[in-house]
Amino acid sequence: MRPFVLLATRAEDVPAEEEYAAFLAYAGLTEHELVRVRLEAGPMPRLDLDALSGIFVGGGPFNASDPPERKPAVQRRVEAEFRALLDEVVPRDFPFLGACYGVGTVGVHQGAVIDATYAEPIGVVPVTLTEAGAADPLLAGMPHEFGAFVGHKEAVTALPSSAVLLASSPGCPVQMFRVGRNVYATQFHPELDVDGITTRIHAYADHGYFAPGELDLTLAAARRAPVSHPSRILRNFVERYAR
User: Fold this and answer.
1) What CATH architecture does domain 4-241 belong to?
2) What's the 3-state SS for 148-216?
């Protein structure tokens, strides 16, 4: 099997390692089958799409809608690298699944409006499939409504005509979309479980996702409802595109 690639941007080692472990476990892949590239540590290597089965993108601290002058140099580099990659991925309709930061990368590339209008605090939200989502093979076996972990400062306010809406939540109209047949982005985190989100809550306590003094409330919000279905998306992606 040709390997998959995980493009990651987390600078903090513990959540970065847990993110990789979660993708491995829930996608059903070995380390040889899922090659991780930590983009915050260095430039994106040239990816030969013909030698790969597909691309995953993990979440991270970057906000695409931040003013350019507020973006650190590493973020500007990573965004430029994603633009170049998606210039190849989208026309080829190459298998691509971006989790959380995928909305920022694919959304910006396709001309979506991304801002803070539909930001969601860290916690569990009910995600509902659209008619197109219910018919999409990547969401095969998913219930019409399921709980998912979220926590983001920006989201898509308006999708471009090139994108198909697949899932929404009450506080965020665009939770998942598709471009072409094989390029996907989710606002929620399909790779997260309770242990993983607990680690991230502690790791990013000073990053503005919740107010000082709300650590215990945020931890409780992440445990208020069971989350078991979203990881199926990762396994579906691998089963559909492994070659």
Assistant:
1) 3-Layer(aba) Sandwich (3.40)
2) EEEEECCEEEECCCCEEEEEEECCEEEEEEEECCCEEEECCCCCCCHHHHHHHHHHCCCCCCCCCCCHH
Average pLDDT over residues 57-72: 92
Q: Which residues contact 87 (CB under 8 A, 6 or more apart)?
A: 109
pTM, full prediction: 0.96
Q: Which two tokens stand for residue 208?
A: 């503005």
Q: Please tell me the distance from the alpha carbon of residue 234 to that of residue 98, in angstroms, as a whole number.
A: 11
Q: Is the pLDDT of residue 27 over 90?
A: yes
Residue 158 main-chain phi, psi, to 5 deg: -145, 125
Check if the beta carbon of residue 166 is closer than 8 Å to that of residue 178. yes
Rounded distance, CA 243 to CA 238, Å?
Answer: 9
Residue found by looking up tokens 């997260």 in the block: 192
Q: Are 5 and 47 in contact (CB under 8 A)?
A: yes
Tens of pLDDT, residues 128-137: 999 999 999 9
